[in-house]
Request: fold
Amino acid sequence: MSIEVVAPLEVHEVPGSDRPAEIYLAQTRDGLYTPYAMRTPSDLGRYPFVFLAYGNGGGGLDWLRGRIRTHAYITERLLAAGYACAWGRYRTEVELGYHRGGELVVDTRQGMDLMNRAPLEYEDEVAILQHVRQHPLVDAGRLGHVGVSHAGEMLFKLASQYDGLLRAGVACEPANHEFLDLTPDDTAFVNPDTQLRNIEEMQMRETDRVRARTNVSLALERIKPIDLPILVMGRDDDHLQGIFRLSYELLAEAGKDAQWVSWDHPLHGYIFPVTRPNGTVDVDDVQERAIDGVIEFLDARVKNG
Reply:
């Protein structure tokens, strides 16, 4: 697929900064488009790049425009550290789509693509990363990924199936229940109206308990192809802390380049501080130190690795 970076679809000023956010559209593997909002430290040079992702998909351009306004702090920190960066938005998560669908296989029929399944949300990330690599201000060989919650799990999926795009990744509070093939307990239930699982209140704090409910052999099989340094970040009092910790432990047991850190903070996604409508940023010392650690990891593995 030929990729060309053209003029941005939209340009948004960021309050308090002279560096705007430019929204681009990346063509996905099935010919549709997924948006991302890029910022660069200047209009000159070639910069290492960090992709930022949060949670489940959906919301499209409206979600992305809002993210530019409400979550500029992390991009400001990355710009100051010498990184280009972008918030990305992707299609909605498909319940167990990764677990049941397997790897994406593409063939040809009547001169056009034929697929064994539709692309999934983490493959929209792949499309964005491939598009970003063509940007004249980005060093194509120095790309990183920072994902929170479901987007942390997306990093594991991407790293397992798509090699060579990234130098390193950060998975903050990765909701890896699907990647681990975790069997939920009775705190989860099936919504009778949709027949989809509701796992919002699933209690998985203890690592040993999570391990006992995990398909460890399958998880290790999925981890085996990963050739990517990953920093896994937990949250001390999170009800899924056992999932976060086991994700790290299995990486380590498989001999992967993995690091673990956990912070005590009330905000899910604490490395992404929120900007209020009046322009003030809700950020505290714990968040600052956690972000310092993320940038230190990226410096060692992406910028200078």
